[in-house]
Structures are given as structure tokens and as C-alpha cells.
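The instructor's notes for this session suggest beginning with a concrete chain rather than abstract definitions. Hand out the sequence below and ask the class to guess, before any prediction is shown, which regions might be ordered.
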Amino acid sequence: YSDFCQIQDAYTQVLRSQMQHDKLPLALIALIDKQPIGLGAIRPTCIPRKGVVPWSDEHPEAQPWFAVFVAAAYQKKGVGTKLVTAAMHYAQQQFGFDRVYAVPEDAELEALYIR
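After discussion, reveal the predicted structure:
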């Protein structure tokens, strides 16, 4: 959005009003100097992706779903690994999940998830 600065405060207030820590969906946000550089999101259901996620066509509600995003300037610096680790730990501790699924978009994400 080219004029994001004009709506940033209003948008921030909306996001703050939706913050939660004890139910899904939720996101863990990586910050440097109070600026977001990455996000690890956990959803209660997977995003159906026909032919890619085996269980999604028949049972999208069956498993929790995870995604990670890191700003380009901070990739390959351990931020993604820390977000994945923190999100997995949080999902286990807060919700009792014994596993969380993710489908990597490329080989780099696949390597991150495998680690």
C-alpha cells in the first residue's frame, strides 16, 4: 500500500485489538528495535492445497498449521530457525500439540523446516 504511513496507526490499533495468546490463530513476531522482522503463525486448521497437503482435501481441520515469514534483509541469520523453534515450543506448551504441519514453498524453507 503506497500510503501505508497514513493508515499505519489505525491498522496497528486493529491488530492490537485482535491480539491473543491463549487461542488460535496466533502469531509470534520477531522484533529488532521494536520493528517487526519476522513472523511465525500457527493456525488451528491447515490451508487446503489440493494435491500438496495430503490431509487437507478430506480433513482440513485435522491438524494445526504453521507458516514462517522473515524479511529479506534478515534471512539466513537464524531468525527463521528461532521463530520455528519458538512456535513449535509454544504450540506444544500452550495447546498440547505433538506436531504442527507446514508445507514449504521452496527448497530453502524446506531445509529450514527440516532443521
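Then share the key points. The radius of gyration is 15 Å. The chain is about 35% helix and 20% strand.
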